Amino acid sequence: MEQFFKKLGVRELTAVDIYNKLKDEQLLPDDAKETLKLFSSLLASPGDKSAQGLKPEAILEREVFPVRLASGGIKLCAEKSSTFVISDLNWLAEGFEGKLDFLNFPKEEVKSDLEAFIRWTGLEKNYLTRVAKKEVIVKNRGFTAHINDKERDIKSIAIAYKSPRATDQDSLHDLLRQAETLEADDVTEVYSVGVTAYEPPNSVAVDMVEDVDSLKFYMPKDSGRQALCFSSALPEKLATWLLSKPGEEQSSDPGAKPKGLNDVATVVREVLQLRPTQWRSALGRHDIVLIDKDGADEQETENVEAGEGGMGTTITYAVTEPEISDERKAEIGRKGEQYVFDILSGFNLPDFGEHNWMSKNNRYALYDYEYEDKHGVFRAWLGQQGAFASASRPSALAAVTYHIEVKTTTTKDCSMPMYLSRDQFKEMCRLARPAEGEWKDVYVILRVFAVESDSPQLKALADPVSWIGRGELSAFNTVLLSC
């Protein structure tokens, strides 16, 4: 490319050229947006050394930042005289939309097009997850259950992952023995930026209170939200505590997560979710040796099936399900989506077509299908499928949008685990049936099984959170299991 420009006698643009444009010229919002993206790409280019010595302050003082105002409209602002935030977490940004001024770039463009510029200017401090503070509000605390029968397993996890709290194993053991999970009328998360607050609907929150000799976790009394707490919020909260130093205050930044949190939370979740006979199997599958009551490794090893080990044995977990390649998974998924498309097309849903098949041409789509049911036809079909966990249904008189995720397996057993991404799991929780007000958005899982047989089958679950609340579906990490 450089030789091409030389032959034409045209000099390639450099970071200095764009820097001077931002510093000296009067720009319109759309032009400023594209110019910032171009400047960021040049800052990230290893071949462009011209940015060395350029001062970010000269740009930060200029009105070149397109800001989407809380009051409406786009305005060019200077960073020095504005309080705009930068979207780096979609659901949180949606909650503060219309309440805060945002840099007019969605999270995806911030990540792909502006990252180098944000680092160069030091604007990471404006990320919404760094500006917002999280507070957990607990109403009317009471008692529900203990987790102190699992102290040896959690202590073993702490030692395996080199938890700062494992340096004093006796204190850790005593504290875990006193740990309790407690019930409150409600536990909610509230996010605030200054005096502006946002409370996510149907939030799944756990509050933790640590004293010198006790550890208490509070969760909501509602059975559906409580089940989700045991599968997501509680393991993450406990894992965060294990990875922190004694006496260290927990961060209130929504985006702050200690290194290794996901790995530790996954193992903690298994210990909390599984039956006692399965705990040692779960630890063995992660190469974690169970610590005996005196703190020593239990040495006797025995190869047994998961859940069969007795006291004093370390389990070598036997994996019986063959590995499936990503290509094979994608192939099975496409077959399930096509099967659903054929089914839904077959009974003439009004205005239903390929435009509702969101994932067909976009593999990053959050749902496979999205359908606005204006006449209650899809609602009636879901009712025929037994998809609703209770008599409570979305209104048949108002338009309701159904967000449909297809989960497919080749087996004939519909109780096989259904794997959700973290974003899908959060969306499932977000769209749970509200306690009050209209139910305008419904999350639906269509479970297709025996997809490669002559007679595939389908099971529909509308609002899976309500099925979890009834105990007919269990949530394990981001895996749903039929009970």
Using only CA atoms, what is the Rg? Answer: 26 Å
Poorly predicted runs? 4-9, 293-322
The tally of beta strands, per DSSP, is 17
Main beta sheet: 5 strands, mixed
Helix content: 25-40%
Principal-axis shape equals: globular
Query: How many helices does DSSP assign?
Result: 17
The first-to-last residue Cα distance is 61 Å
- Structure classification: alpha+beta
What proportion of the residues form beta strands (DSSP E)?
A: 15-25%
Give the mean pLDDT. 79
In short:
By secondary structure, the protein is of the alpha+beta class. 34% of the residues lie in helices and 19% in strands.
Please describe what this structure looks like.
- The chain has 483 residues and is α+β, with helices and mostly antiparallel strands.
- Helices cover 34% and strands 19% of the residues.
- The chain is built from 17 helices and 17 strands.
- Strands 4, 5, 6, 7 and 8 form a five-stranded mixed sheet that branches. It has a four-stranded mixed sheet with strand order 11-12-14-15. A three-stranded antiparallel sheet has the order 2-1-3, with helices on one face.
- α2 (15-24) packs antiparallel against α3 (29-44), α9 (151-160) runs antiparallel to α10 and α11 packs across α12.
- The relative contact order is 0.07.
- Residues 4-9 and 293-322 have low confidence and may be disordered.
